[in-house]
Amino acid sequence: MASAGMMGVYTYVLRGGVFCNAQTANVVVMAINFGKGDWLGGLYFLIPISAYLLGAFVSEILPSPVKRLGFLRWDTYLIIFETAVLLLLGFIPLSVPHQVVQVIVNFIASMQYNTFRQAEGIPMATTFCTNHIRQIGVGLAKAVRKWDSLALRRGLIHAGMVFAFFAGAALLTFLCPILAEKTVWVTLVPMGIVLVKLISADIGVEHDMLDRKPSGH
């Protein structure tokens, strides 16, 4: 969630003023352009939408063949790939058309969203906050109406996810004027923590469970 908040700020502040973690805004703006008769302007948004679609497609196809390798889980390979891509983005100057970086972030954000679907057994998205905010309200309502401590705990976990997203976004906003295009490298910190934990589990205590679907799915 922290890395997703950072990616959102990176593309919004430095790479063209758009959010690439989700596609609702792109669909809306495409519809607005079509409604105004700007067909060419509207058709452009098929590019980021297609990149997001491709990310979901690839992340749905690859886990099965990866599982047969019997070395690391798909989740771990994805974080390795995502970390490598984020590292490379820091070498792309701000003078390069922003759409290049936007499409790349669309692709990896979609893969992350489609791969990591739960945390501690609780369904959730890891690239945007809308559902988390809704679930906070749901958890609070159940806690008040039914004195449901489990619902309250789930709501608090969702609140923690929103805070992680917010904290990552705030930190990167502060660093953008200082580090410019290299600001994206800050995302490697939370990604690196996740990667170390996943590799440690895959080659260590959970190596005999590589054939099982990860609980994050």
From TrEMBL:
The chain crosses the membrane at residues 12-35, 41-62, 74-94, 155-180, 186-205. It comes from the Bacteria. InterPro entries: DUF1275. Keywords: Membrane, Transmembrane, Transmembrane helix. PANTHER family: SLR0142 PROTEIN, UPF0700 TRANSMEMBRANE PROTEIN YOAK. This is DUF1275 domain-containing protein. It comes from Acutalibacter muris. The lineage of its organism: Bacteria, Bacillati, Bacillota, Clostridia, Eubacteriales.
